[in-house]
Design goal:
Structural class: alpha/beta
Helix content: 40-55%
Number of domains: 3
Largest sheet: 5 strands, mixed
CATH superfamily of the largest domain: Periplasmic binding protein-like II
Shape: rod-shaped
Order of helices and strands: HHHEEHEHEHEEEEHEHEHEEEH
CATH class of the largest domain: Alpha Beta
Number of strands: 13
CATH topology of the largest domain: D-Maltodextrin-Binding Protein, domain 2
Strand order of the largest sheet: 4-3-5-13-6
Strand content: 15-25%
């Protein structure tokens, strides 16, 4: 069914006069008459009937008008939305590991909104572990994620945008708690609260200890940095974690690591093989230019 013909029909239904409707649509009256005839032939019913000099809808015409206006309204709203997004408006869907939600990502988003004050831009924020976020990125649930380095086998584009200091935390009263710094070797004689395999930190901490050719004794495992810190405060063991301001509020001793063998980098990750909306693309460029 010809979309232009439907628009001609709606205009004629409202104006109820062929000459005036044709003038409003910038077409000739014969072109309008042809369009209506084609619609009536396709539908198999009469849409209009004469009433003096005017043209009125039949019962079928009134029914079709309601359908046509709903359809055109939906279509026009969709076109308007797409055009706004093409101009830089829309929603940016972010995934992030929880520690970056304390300050880093909110600051980036807030600063970007200030620069885009004349745009209708908004964000959604979703937290999770690195593994979960990368799986969801592959499923196109997010435009980009902020997390640990993704495995190369996933084929994502990843750019480092910051780093965190790694520290050892020990519960109050622990033999290491009277120190200010330790080496990794110093920690091997004690049980560790460890990152589970779903966390991006797991491979990083494993790499640190593999450099020593030794592995720590694991008391328990979990995915979230904050949960590890809580378990350490409760006396389950010591842990290697990224530094977080929340550690100041817990009953733990924060120890710097001497001769730290690796850096804890975090990345902005997106799938360059899939289409990213203009508004998300602009924010991604902003993130890269800000670091």
């Amino acid at each position: 069914m010809n979309l232009s013909y439907i628009r001609y029909f709606v205009e004629l239904a409202h104006v109820q006069h062929y000459t005036n409707a044709a003038r409003n649509m910038n077409i000739t009256q014969p072109s309008l008459s042809h369009a209506i005839s084609q619609l009536e032939e396709e539908l198999g019913v009469m849409l209009f009937e004469k009433n003096g000099r005017n043209t009125e809808l039949t019962a079928f015409g009134r029914e079709f008008l309601a359908c046509a206006e709903r359809s055109l309204g939906t279509l026009d709203a969709g076109v308007e939305s797409i055009q706004k997004e093409a101009a830089g408006d829309g929603v940016i869907r972010l995934g992030l590991i929880r520690p970056l939600g304390m300050e880093f990502v909110p600051r980036l988003a807030a600063e970007y909104l200030k620069k885009a004050e004349n745009r209708n831009v908004s964000f959604t924020f979703h937290t999770g572990t690195t593994g979960q976020l990368l799986d969801d990125l592959a499923a196109r649930k997010y435009d980009m994620v902020f997390c640990s380095r993704p495995p190369e086998t996933m084929g994502f584009s990843a750019v480092p945008v910051g780093r965190q200091d790694l520290v050892v935390i020990a519960p109050s009263g622990h033999p290491l708690a009277d120190r200010d710094s330790v080496t990794l070797e110093d920690t091997l004689g004690y049980k560790h609260v460890y990152f589970s395999k779903g966390s991006g930190m797991r491979s990083l901490v494993d790499e640190m200890f593999e450099g020593l050719g030794k592995a720590p004794e694991i008391a328990c495992e979990t995915e979230e940095d904050e949960v590890i810190a809580g378990l350490v405060a409760a006396g389950f063991g010591i842990a290697v974690v990224p530094y977080m301001d929340m550690l100041k509020r817990l009953d733990v001793k924060v120890l710097s690591i001497k001769h730290q063998p690796v850096d804890r980098l975090y990345y902005v990750v997106h799938d360059s093989r899939t289409y990213m909306s203009p508004v998300a693309t602009k924010f991604h460029k902003y993130v890269l230019s800000s670091n």
